[in-house]
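ping. complex inputs:
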Amino acid sequence: MGNPNFTQVGRSVPRIDGPLKVKGEAIYTDDMVLPRMAYGKIKRSPYAHAIIKKIDYSKALALPGVLAVITGEDAPNKWGIVPQTANEVALAVGKVRFHNEGVAAVAAIDEETAEAAIDLIEVEYEPLPVLLDPYESIQRANEVKIHDDAPENILHVGDQLFGDPDKAFAECTYVLEKEFHTSYVNHAFLEPHTALASYDVQSGKLQLWSSTQVPHYLHRQLSIVMEMPMNKIRVTLPAIGGGFGGKGEASPADFCAALLSRKTGRPVKVTYERSEVFATNKGRHPCHIKMKIGLDKDGYIQAVDFDNTLDGGAYAGWGIVVMFYTASMIHLPYKVPNARARVRRVYTNKPTCGAMRGLGGVQPRYAMECMLDEMAEMMGISPYELKMKNAVESGYRSVSNLHVPHTEYKKCLQTAVEKSGYLEKHGKLPFGKGIGLAGGYYISGTAYTLYQAYKPHTTVLIRVDTEGGVTVHCAAADIGQGCNTVMAQMAAEALGIRYEDVHVVSGDTELGTFDLGSFASRLTYASGAAIKEAAAEINQKLKEVAAGMVGCRADQLEIKDGRFYSIFEPRKNIEWEKVVDVYTNTVGTLVGTGHFSPPRLKGIDLTRGKRVQGANIGHSPTFGFSCQIWEVDVDLETGKIRVERVTEAGDCGQAVNPMSVDGQVEGSIMFAMGQALYEEMKMDAQGKMINASLHDYKVPTAMELPEINTTIVDSYDPTAPFGVKESGEGPVQPTIPAITNAIYDAIGVRFTDLPITPEKVLQALREKKAR
Amino acid sequence: MKQLIELEINGRIYEIPVSPKDLLVDVIRKKVGLTGTKKGCGQGDCGACTVLIDGEPVLSCITLAIACQGKKITTIEGLVAEDGTLHPIQQSFVDHGAVQCGFCTPGMILTSKALLDKNPQPTETEIKRGIAGNICRCTGYKRIVEAISAAGDTISSGGVK
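pong. complex structure:
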């Protein structure tokens, strides 16, 4: 599979951090205790929309053991992962916009005192009407405004046109138009947000340990909110207990810890309760989608019209980016020659939505894969045939100018269909049992930074010497996905040594060199490219020394299995460590650096040669593809859906660590299954979440685990470092539509809103019977 | 009102000042300093705080510390052998890729130990039922179930306790 000459890349090796984690010795932020450390707690609003008239914290401050109290006025600078739309503050200033928004924070000598102090803070509110539905929010915008600078209660509107969809639809033989509604879901990572800040009064430096996936973006936001230069702030990541996008921007825990530390001159730790994780959310946007697809008489897609209203919640967050991603995601993995997207992200008085595993892809993929399933039925062909017919090929350039350098998407469809017996089962199983197919794709990194900059997205520094061996420095964030192990494997491959002999220093803005963070499935590709460049520099310098030692020219040496060999006379060889020893003893420590800048493709309407607003979002150096086939058994008495089997085939390019890839795929499958069948954050009429616990918010447990068969299809992207692509977010894309299509095959009902609960199934069965 | 209690954790007796409302998870993490026990929800829902009390898995975030006097408490730190060798379940989790972010891992491993101590070769369904109270959001459980099954085989064949 992949490149047969690789020895370190392509190996299923245990995680570098595995032993420490199974021993309970890995240190997460909340495990840390510093001398004189104080504990911070946040006072939260009981209203979802209200003016803050007055905050009186004198009683709290008078409580013995309380060290400091802060409110929004202490740090009014606005932050946001997207600087053009930054509208969040560390603590509410003047107004709260969602239930449980933070209004004040306390630092005290222990948690009990901090909690008691929170209750002593008196806040006077003037409640405002609460808008929970995006359509109501738009409708009542004249009367109720969530943000002063958004008169329509809309963050942003996007309108993209590629080709001539109206003309194309008029000529289509098969046209289908449908609406889909996706649910309000949270990442439910197991480690709640936590931050430990230590401000040193003498040097004016701030050290923050945080459970973040984006040390760099957090670093920038801290600089804005704290009004401190970045070079006085250091962000360090201890072990991170999962993120899935939910730690993909700063959190008020970070700011409150930092502000309280500066105010008290002590280290301050803020760790969220589970209810605060739900309250601050940043989960997946509920989308209200209208999609129209047109096929010609032979089943080739001629046009797609996409209309999406995103319920964004109270603040901007990642919103505008997610919105344009949903528009971009209709252009692959099928050839769509004409397309229109009209999208809008609406403010409501709910916890803000943001980035969540496979962001922007999951919702339009649900609509498109379900509709193609239905259109295949209209045509009287198999959904497999329809999808194969329209699937993109290597070298494809979409009408929006997305370039796909390499794809094995058809191989994914073929493999999953063969291994599951889809063609033999589809449409032929007894009532109540069904099989469904869906495909998907995702980006392997982005083309642009979130702020205007054209700097490299990743820098890697490799240090080699006798004392430290080989150390890869890169401020990437291992949030549990295993990038440290993968970086060690790629560095070992490039240097001709073993992965066990490579140290990785990551997750630290001071010790690690620049990296944007863990999101957009970018790290394997981006760090791989930088590692390759840095290793080339190391290899060149070591070869010059080795050449003299073995007695041949430097350009006639190759490095393999920890030795330098003359390519013409392999008996002339020398151990890698000996060369390093000589290099270190003569020249000193050897360093090599590498950078990665993605290809900067732009979103252009190729027919008219015009740039299209927002269409730079969605471009990627390469894309991962996959297909999933789900088999379900619907209990006709209870409406309960039992998943029997999942067959998956994925194109992640060259798998660096196949065991890790399988883990990403299996994790994705169960993660997305939760959104399809069980998970939904529910609010009461006042905007208070009524299921803010892991008891009432139902994530899949081991009892829901079906039989899962995954296949990494043979793939190697020749344009990518080590042939790699993403594997962490693509596999969530096909899950929801594949389940939905399987349910249709089982009971003849096409569900268009999530989650597909037993109640909805029973209701649908009753309606079906009545017809 | 604080009182001094004795807790036996991983075979060692600790004398700890606690108030009657102190939860076991907080006492283990903050007063004893064994931070391998994790707190994911504080409401007894996620299983990350699982410890063994007299061999039974218990959610330490909804257990009062004072109620644990005179009992044998095992935390994840108590599983490694004296010479540093991993317990077969720990080794199996590493080898099978059953660890990603690692936050559920200590609780998951202790729940598995209680299961395998009683039933060294459980069926797949018995394993799933056994760990149903431990949420993992990263792995999708498949590798965890495989790791537990393989560890059971190792323990049965090698007689490791």
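The longest strand of chain B covers residues 3-9.
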